Amino acid sequence: MNEVNHFRRVVLIWLVSSVILTPIVVLAAQGIPPGDGSVQAAGQTTDNGVLLGLSTPVALAVVVFFIYSLIAFRERDTAAVLDGPPVRGHAGVQLWWIVTTTTIVLFLAGYGTIRMLADGAGGGQGPNPIAKPTSSVPALPVQVIAQQWKFTFRFPTYGGVETNHLEIPANRLIAFHVTSLDVIHSFWAYQLGVKADANPGVDNIAYVQTKNPLTFNIHCAELCGVWHGYMFDTGAVVSGPQFASWIAQQRARFAPATKLLPPYAKQYFPDPQHRGG
Amino acid sequence: MDELVAVSTPKRPIWQRLIGFNLVSAVVLAIVGWLIGYWIGGRIHAPSLDFFADNGQNDISILLGYLFGVIGFMIGMGFANYPIRRMLGHPPTLAEHESEGEGLGRYFRLCTDHKVVGLQYVVGIGFFFFIGGLNAMFIRTELLNPNSHAFGPNQYLTLVGLHGTMMMGMMTSVILGPFANWLVPLMIGCRRMAFPRIEAFTFWLLMAAGIVLLTTLFFGGFQTGWTGYQPLAGQGTAGYDAYIGFFALVGLSMCLLGLNLLVTIITMRPPGMTWSRLPIFVWSVLATATLMLLASPMLLAALLMGAFDRAVQTGFYVPGIGGSAYLWQNLFWVFGHPEVYIVALPGFGIVLELLPVFTRKPLWGYRLAVAGMLGVTLLSFFVWQHHLFVSGINADLRPFYMLSTELISLPTGFIFLCAMGTIWRGRIRFTVPMLFCLAWVFNFLIGGISGVFLSDVPSDVTTHGSFFSMAHFHYTIMGGLVFTLFAAIYYWGPKMTGFKFNERLAKIHFWSLFIAFNSTFGPLFALGLMGMPRRVVTYPTNLQALNDWVSVSAYVIGLSMLVFLVNLVWSQLFVREPAEANPWNSKSAEWQLPTPVPVHDFDRIPVFDGDPYPYGVPPATAPVGIAPAGGTA
């Protein structure tokens, strides 16, 4: 057998397996978390699907090539020590490889950038977000205050009330202002596709456009001390009227506490003399 | 120095041999040094320094204790002798090298023979590798159940931190320490490293670092993980001082090791060993050594500021009094991301060095492989903020870091292409080292592709800080580094020790490790996507089945490592079947030497007149100047 035959066979096996497997992978990727909890979460799922769809043929190229070579070129006569052909490279193959991989990489970086700029992708963007999703109603600001080992939530447009749990209205653009009172935490609202680090003294903004009502898990995603594993909670996306009654209830309930709180600010500096421990 | 010569004379009674510069005096002086440092710390500590203090402990005493303890240890090992002798005007010698002879004792003393240091590194790092692995077993035991059951949260986080720190600290040198020290002089044809004393120094410094890290258990452990993020670290008990001491020593050791290897490779090549004739493994060592030299100072600076924050209450990392919590993250990852390539690059070198031997073909695309390694080296300094994609720092620069991170897949792709070109139409032999190299291809492919998800900002929002990223770096580091480490042990081990491994046990080790590794870390991708954050002691109950599967697979990894240990002890200490000079029929320079390699390596400095992989061409182009041994078909 000559080389051309081997190469054609590898390409053929790769083509067939890619044509069969890539659509299956892309379809299956629709079930990849975080799911359809928000516009941003759905965007991440689409993004994962594109990445998986692209990487399937690439991975298959390497895997098919190796499996084929290991079978076709295995040494059958292990007693004799015979050398293979002294091939030291092939400029055409190398050039072709460099051009292909560069194209894929540039596409990935461009695609990721476009998706990120479109809706912020739910990630923390610091105090001056470059990706601001637009909406007919102004975004609802919710301040997420992390401390060891609890998240609390402050609503500046509702009298600065600070609540123990989180409820947000459905079909509304929410701006999470994530900050911390002590060490670095990370606010991860899993089903919403939101993750933003909580840094002391930093106003880290993450946008999310909610969809239908659902309950979502909140975890701390950055090691923040002994009870890090217990820093989780459940939040809810609820309908507009339900949210209005919930927030009114919270304002009434926490009215005495709200009076004692420091005025609403974008960040709160911990008192260095009383660092937690 | 006279003492040192005297100690190595075997006729003296044992009690006299214990007096001198050896491990016993080193331990004694380390304890004395610790007490002196602790005492000084107590004297200069003032109540005013407790102004910001939060843990009620005197960190100055503990940090100075480590400093003086390590200095005492090094003096006890005899590292001060040479500088003092030189200052007193004595002529330079390599007495530690010349006087040691063949005895087993030289493995427990300061010895400047690069082959002795290489073996010291294998055993020394191996010891800490198994401690780190044992911690992983404890972690998986805790995660058998969604609730905290086996260990409390404090103990659990200490185990997580110890596992990560041990693996990412000690294991950075796991190829360059043992194999580069042992092999580079033989491969490039010089009799020693450029700085033999520095070579020995890096090893004993690393051992001191390992002990320092283990002392954290006496001070309450540390709860920060291996990343040691501030300002959390500022709250930590004195156990975190051990982290600072450990990483500072590791950083210093790494920096000097890189410097030594760089100088050796650049200046010690004999005539004929041109850049294009360097074995590809030496190129990977060159790239890694560059990273070590340039990245570790950043870590040392960050640790110094951390130590000052804790001991004398400066505020480098304290927001509100002029510091910033971002500063540590930035400095740590400016070091930390090159560091992950410090552990990945030697693996590239080993795979490309071994594939030609077991396919009986020259390395395909030598220049492309070199370009790949140098490309990774360069790019790795420009990607660190992908660790901070959701942290809110420099959000405008995320597209740049996304691009630079994804660009790294180009030079890494070169390595894959060279591996593919090399096996194409080869005569492939499935030896144990070859199996480990092939496993690297698969593992690193998965690791690399999962890295694309983490480098993509929208995808990273969910995967960041989750078990997905944990699975990713275990695929690249364990699947990449540890598998090639075992390839190197099975390939060069018999040459280094002079004794064969048991092949049946080695094959059991390989297959159990490969299957259990994928069965452990594959499901972790799913766990991360299903919402499991890293370093948690509890998790949602619906994730228990997968976690239990992972834990059981992890135990199989543990058993597989036990098989390796049994093989190591059985074949090297009990059976001791002498290894042939060139069992793999390799044409590389190091295999043309007799086994065991003579103390002075070569009778005369070899002359290289051909390329390093003369397969498929007449044997005339094999390196001359070395007595040929083994088959050259």
Percent strand of chain A equals: 15-25%
Q: What's the arrangement of strands in the largest beta sheet of chain A?
A: 3-2-1-5-8
User: Total number of helical segments of chain B?
Assistant: 22
Amino-to-carboxy terminus distance of chain A: 72 Å
Radius of gyration of chain A: 26 Å
Number of strands of chain B: 0
- SSE order of chain A, as H and E? HHHEEEEEEEEEEH
**Individual helix count of chain A:** 4
Structural class designation of chain A: alpha+beta
Radius of gyration of chain B: 25 Å
Multimerization state: heterodimer
Helix content of chain B: 55-70%
Low-confidence sequence ranges of chain B: 1-9, 620-633
Round the mean pLDDT of chain B to the nearest integer and report it: 89
* Average pLDDT rating of chain A: 90
Q: How would the global form of chain A be characterised? A: elongated
Main sheet attributes: strand count, strand direction, barrel closure of chain A: 5 strands, mixed
* Main sheet makeup of chain B: none
Strand element count of chain A:
10
Structural class of chain B: mainly alpha
SS strand fraction of chain B: under 5%
Summarize the structure in words.
The complex is a heterodimer of chains A (277) and B (633). Chain A has 277 residues and is α+β, with helices and mostly antiparallel strands. Chain A is 40% helix and 21% strand. Chain A is built from four helices and ten strands, in the order αααββββββββββα. Chain A has a five-stranded mixed β-sheet with strand order 3-2-1-5-8. A five-stranded mixed β-sheet of chain A has the order 4-10-9-6-7. Chain A is elongated and about 90 Å long. In chain A, 39% of the residues are buried. With 633 residues, chain B is mainly α. Chain B has 22 helices and no strands. The termini of chain B are far apart. Mean pLDDT of chain B is 89; it is low at 1-9 and 620-633. At the A-B interface, helix 2, helix 3, strand 7, strand 8 and strand 9 of A face helix 8, helix 11, helix 14, helix 15 and helix 16 of B.
